[in-house]
Design brief:
Length: 364
């Protein structure tokens, strides 16, 4: 896996897909199956393409979601989802991973708690601008790809208010962006409010904070400590018609030794990330969605400062609940070149070329 400081910087309660199929329902116990398969054509400048040549990448997901009533007001649930990717490599078992694996208890109006592997709690905030397929989340931290084990989360919703608490237990190879590091523990808190419909739709206000304490990996690789992430977002609109959202993210962490081959034993110290993401979309009743955005990031460390500016454009056609097709592009809007003597990098600052993808997906 290629590492970069920028990749680290930019790096749910039980709910099944709207397309999930119920395969068992008896005596208060249900079991749903869900999944998807997709094929996406990437231009040669996209990292999924092999050796910078255009390529088709395929992906498969499969999951199970179960729920059973323990009493009239309390239910237990569990979920598991696996994903397999082939990006420029036809190896049969290439890049197979577990996305979600958790179990929990739903206390009804008193909220729900779950434990296991799941997205970071702060994704509740950053998901407001996560509407693209391939080139979203370049201006936020804690995105949907950052799923890790060892988590406990509690969430409560009522009267338009959402509240969440999370705890991270000690775990090795915790993934943050393109990095993996050992974590001693941590916590997170999120809160938000959704208003009644205002013209185009409801207004959503969300904020969150996450703290992770790192530990020595024990193999002379990267050591991260005091990873602090804060995010705030605002959205306006609904599932159809006009939708717009903005998110601001701040992340700070200490790279204690940075002992990786890429950085030649460099001692980096504090790394600060600032991110701004804006999206504007319109969802037509025909199933067509047109969207564009602006994703800006700034990273500061060891006397260096780099900026990335990207403009994603997206058109999706949801033919029906099972099948959709899309075309997406990302344009560079004046990003800095990532140049540090003796440092090997492969990150968003080096990708000045415009990129595009064309995909189709079947969901069940």
């Amino acid at each position: 896996m290629k590492k970069s400081i920028v990749a680290l910087a930019v790096s749910a309660l039980c709910a099944s897909s709207v397309n999930a199929a119920n395969i068992y329902d008896k005596d208060g116990t249900t079991l749903d199956v869900q999944g998807r398969v997709q094929a996406v054509y990437y231009s040669g400048n996209q990292k999924a393409a092999t050796d910078h040549k255009s390529s088709i990448a395929d992906q498969f997901r499969f999951g199970l979601v179960g729920r059973t009533q323990l009493t009239d007001k309390i239910a237990a649930f569990g979920a598991y989802e696996i994903q397999s990717d082939h990006e420029g490599d036809s190896t049969e078992t290439q890049d197979q991973k577990t996305r979600d694996a958790y179990v929990g208890v739903d206390f009804g109006k008193f909220g729900a708690v779950q434990a296991g592997r799941m997205p970071s709690n702060i994704y509740y905030v950053t998901e407001l601008t996560d509407i693209f397929d391939d080139w979203g989340c370049a201006g936020v931290a804690g995105n949907d790809d950052t799923r890790n084990s060892g988590k406990v989360q509690y969430k409560w919703s009522g009267y338009g208010v959402d509240f969440g608490l999370g705890a991270q237990t000690a775990i090795n190879n915790y993934t943050i962006g393109d990095f993996e590091t050992n974590v001693k523990g941590g916590f997170s808190v999120t809160a938000g409010y959704t208003s009644p419909v205002v013209l185009f739709g409801p207004v959503q206000i969300r904020a969150g904070y996450e703290y992770l304490k790192g530990q020595d990996n024990g193999d002379n690789t990267s050591e991260f400590s005091n990873i602090k992430t804060a995010s705030a977002g605002l959205a306006w609109g609904g599932d159809t018609g006009f939708y717009t959202a903005i998110d601001y993210t701040y992340r700070k962490f200490n790279l204690r030794s940075g002992r990786t081959a890429a950085y030649n034993d460099a001692k980096i110290g504090d790394v600060k990330f600032y991110g701004l993401e804006f999206v504007l979309a319109y969802n037509f009743e025909s199933g067509i969605t047109v969207a564009a955005g602006y994703e800006a990031t700034k990273v500061k460390f060891d006397g260096y400062s780099f900026k990335s500016k990207k403009v994603p454009v997206y058109v999706n056609y949801q033919v029906n609940e099972q099948f959709n097709v899309w075309i997406e592009a990302q344009f560079d809007a004046g990003s800095d070149e990532f140049k540090i003597p003796g440092v090997v990098s492969d990150n968003i600052f080096d990708r000045h070329q415009n990129q595009y993808s064309v995909g189709m997906r079947y969901t069940f």
